[in-house]
Amino acid sequence: MATKATLALLTLALGMLWxxxxxxxxxxxAELPPPPPLASGELESAKQIYFDRCAGCHGxxxxxxxxxxxxxxxxxxxxxxxxxxFIVNGTGGGxxxxxxxxxxTDAEADLMARYIQHDPPxxxxxxxxxxxxxxxxxxxxxxxxxKARTQPRLAGLFRRDPA
Length: 163
Description:
mainly alpha; two-stranded antiparallel sheet; 37% helix
């Protein structure tokens, strides 16, 4: 088992590599390794954990928000053990130490390290096929009904176009 000092040093070194800008000479893009495998039931579990714990900072599509983007070009280059170290130990830049706090188990941290190396799932609103319907205002949402007191004020404001 690695000591706390070794883990802290590894986290510091990896954090420095994560933030160091690329050299002035643009390098020929290296071919990305394939994403690590996910078992059949792991994808849905990983999606839920990501939405609950990660999307608030890294964005639902992993393009970044208050936290950096987590797209495969970056995550696959970092590898599963490095990503897992970030998830377990956090960073000095604001990434929580999900594993050390006991919020994610070791298996969940490993699952998330593998999951973020896959392409982000496409939301149903933009997926090709039958689910591209525009949302339109629901003209009946402002009408007073007996349900108005028990539902949130914005409930029913938009509905899917039935066409």
